[in-house]
Amino acid sequence: MVYIVLNFLYTKPTFCKGIMSLFDGLHLYEVALAAAGVLLFFVLLALLVRQVWMQRPYGGLLVFFALPVVMIGWPSIQKVQISSDSVSLEKNIATLQQNPKDATLRTKVEEQLKQLTARPISNTAIVTTIARAQLELGDQAASEATVDKALAVAPKAAGLLEVKNQIQLHEHLKDLTAIVETNPANATAKSELQAAVHKVAAIPTANPEFVNSAAAAELAIGHTSEAVALNSKALAIDPASTKAKQLRQRISISQKTNE
């Protein structure tokens, strides 16, 4: 019965929103365990009161109180762990942005991200951290899907909007780069592209695709040395990047042509 009620609550996000927020991030079986623990506690408490009232022995009954304590305690520990993992992930993202070539740290971020995405989390702050982690690891599609889903519920969440703006800026940068590559004489597009590159450069990132897109933009503008530096950074972050390798070849051809 408890399981059925909880399943109903999970499928009705607007129902008892305040109560369900207490269980955010917990699997259904963990919520059921906590609810059953609370129910068992009150049953035992009622039995204890009855025994005391009737002046009957109740010492043996006290031992059973350990069971609901464990049943309630385990989900509580998981809830604390989720918050701790989120804070740790947020700190590691910031560190990775400053040290994008740190493969060990990148792997750690990937592992923490897997742990959090395996849980049914709706907390806006934690979801924002997840989206940022996905974006920094180079999975823009997953990050955008996470953001769009969360914005449908919290359309004014500043953190989510910031991630969304970064994704849109990246797409705008690629679009402008394509325009300038097709029509190098388009001064207006070049000016807009230069402005977009400056915006991207002001954002600390460990996303190799972002960095490589900035390199492609610099090459389209005619800033070969800047393109080389950014492309080298992208390859250092992800040596297997096909797009970065292809851009490196284009830069080499451009350098030979200009010699």
CA(first)-CA(last) distance: 78 Å
Unreliable residue runs? none
Major sheet, described briefly? none
Give a count of the beta strands, DSSP E runs of length 2 or more: 0
Helix and strand composition category: mainly alpha
| Radius of gyration, in angstroms, nearest whole number | 27 Å
Instruction: Please give the count of helices.
Output: 13
Order of helices and strands: HHHHHHHHHHHHH
Mean pLDDT: 87
How much of the sequence lies in strands comes to: under 5%
Total of domains: 2
Backbone shape: elongated
State the helicity in percent bands: over 70%
Oligomer: single chain
List keywords for this structure.
Serine Threonine Protein Phosphatase 5, Tetratricopeptide repeat; mainly alpha; 259 residues
SSE layout and pairings?
Layout lengths: L1 H9 L6 H4 L7 H26 L5 H4 L3 H33 L4 H15 L6 H13 L3 H12 L6 H25 L4 H15 L6 H14 L2 H14 L4 H17 L1
Description:
- The chain has 259 residues and is mainly alpha-helical.
- The protein folds into two domains: 2-121, no CATH class; 163-258, Serine Threonine Protein Phosphatase 5, Tetratricopeptide repeat.
- It has 13 helices and no strands.
- The longest helix has 33 residues, at 66-98.
What's this entry about, in short?
The protein has 259 residues and is an all-alpha fold. It has 2 domains: 2-121, no CATH class; 163-258, Serine Threonine Protein Phosphatase 5, Tetratricopeptide repeat (Alpha Horseshoe), CATH 1.25.40. The protein contains 13 helices and no strands.
